[in-house]
Amino acid sequence: MQRTHYLLCLLAGLLLTACATRPEADYILTNATVYTADSLHTKAQAFAVKDGHFVAVGTTDAVMKAYASDSVIDLKGQPVYPGFYDPHAHFLGLGQMLDQADLVGATSYSDVVARLKTYQQQHPDALWIIGRGWDQNDWPATDSPVRGFPTNKLLDEAFPNIPVALTRIDGHAILANTKALRLARVTGGTVLAGGEVILANGQPTGVLVDNAMQVVKRVIPQPDELAKTRMLQNAEAMCLKLGLTTVSDAGLNRDDIDLVEKLHKNGKLRIRDYAMISLGEPNLEHYLKRGPYQTDRLTVRSFKLYADGALGSRGACLRQPYTDQPTTSGLLLLAPAELDRVIGLLAKSGFQANTHCIGDSANHLILGLYGKYLTKKNDRRWRIEHAQVVSPEDVPLFGRYSIIPSVQPTHATSDMYWAEKRLGSIRVKGAYAFNDLLTQNKLISFGSDFPVEYVNPLFGFHAAVARQDAKNFPKGGFQPENAVSRQDALAAMTRWAAYSCFEDHMRGSIAPGKQADFVILDRDIMTVPNEQLRATQVRQTWIGGQRLYSAK
To answer: What confidence tens digit (pLDDT) does each residue in 221-232 have?
Structure first.
């Protein structure tokens, strides 16, 4: 009996010693289906987190043997992924849109006016009526009588005494009533390089495209810091609910970048942000002198350039005229010489060039200018944003100069109903060619461009692998030869997205040493049928080891 007691005590002592030698983790997640999104597409069962970083990843037994913790969470097989990363979005723009009249999905001009009246009733003290999301491609043709655009006639009838400015879904056109045009001093003689005031009988119709929008935007009252803070926090809440742990701001001025950094420092904003600096001489002068920098939650090392407009508003710059409007080939928003000057400046700096290119002419121009300064394979990670319509002979330039295509899969499924009308049956084959672009450097970056498209990153995942919209249309997918595999789609919204923003050493995959950003979903997006992907719900979102969202 005494010997048995001695052996039990010895065993207990050995167990205590073994536990004491294991380092402590803040918590351990076990019995999960963990998609690490590393280069080998490794799956694991468990991981341990300490001080906001992954410290062990592997089987449940291996992780439990390597680390001890008072908090062990059994996920009972639930799927876990690296935090979803949107490398091209408009985070502040989302917050601003949440404060405006929501016109997304309006099926007619009358529907737009009805929504605006409801908005005015809810905001009786508003000095302006501001809205976003209209898309004349979804309306009856009779609603868009002038060059495929609406006029402000219905707005003037409904709102004669308050200025109204409505941004198109793609952010590249504004519809303004006469009150707003007068405040902005827009006339039939207003001319702006890289933009257009649409006229009828020599008078403004209310539609301003691309650079011309700035004339109206300058007279719209701007939100103060308190309002912007609220907008950013509202945007963060939506993003966290949808599993986003890092977002981007594709074009911010210095004051807004400083505000994001301030909110990070005082803990009022927790989501990570990759801020692209808006092009402009004050920003160029300041940031080229300061140089790139990176904090735990913010990276500032790129400039956002615009080569052209959008396909939906016929502002995308094409090499041949639009099939459905042969009188125009679109617009360059900056002269080639100015684009060359700026890209040359960035080439001498440590900054990344991220240029918006929709049309095949814009893509051709910027690929050539990038190649002029990059000359060969490199690690500058310069990006073409959207890369929407690319001539087949230009596609290899992405590989030749290590240029990253930063695309938005839901653009393909949103535009597929009318893209061929704009481009014709031959040219459309070079549009939304995600798989062709992926093969050039064996990587691609997937974003959403929200609020142009919906925020949910899983909508983009579905669009990329199925080439279908929310109604699972069309059967077999739109140009299915350019669908990508689920493994590549996951990488494109995690590890490759982080790589495209110089953050792959910190996040983008579940690996020891990286920040503990991850999401838990209610179903496995790597195995469920395509038609179930968009119904997937986020159960939890974690950033830096902290749970910031949990479904009720």
So the answer is: 999 999 999 999
The Cα–Cα gap between 533 and 85 comes to: 17
Per-residue pLDDT, 552: 85
- State yes or no: pLDDT of 4 exceeds 80: no
pLDDT band at 20 (very low <50, low <70, confident <90, very high): low
Instruction: Point out which residues pair with 546 in neighbouring strands.
Output: 543
Q: From CA 354, how far away is CA 313, in angstroms rounded?
A: 22
CA distance 442 to 435: 10
Strand ordering across the sheet containing 173-176: 101-102, 129-134, 164-168, 173-176, 203-210, 195-200
The pTM (predicted TM-score) of the whole model is 0.92
Q: Is the peptide bond before 451 cis (omega within 30 degrees of 0)?
A: yes
> How many Å apart are CA 390 and CA 431, to the nearest integer?
6
Distance CA 483, CA 407 (A): 13
CA distances (Å), 368 to each of 172, 343, 384, in order?
Answer: 24, 11, 12
CA nearest neighbour of 421 among 431, 436, 433:
431
Q: Is 331 helix (H, G, I), strand (E, B) or coil?
A: coil
Q: Are residues 391 and 362 in contact, defined by beta-carbon separation less than 8 angstroms?
A: no
Q: How far apart are CA 21 and CA 542, in angstroms?
A: 28
The count of residues in the chain is 552
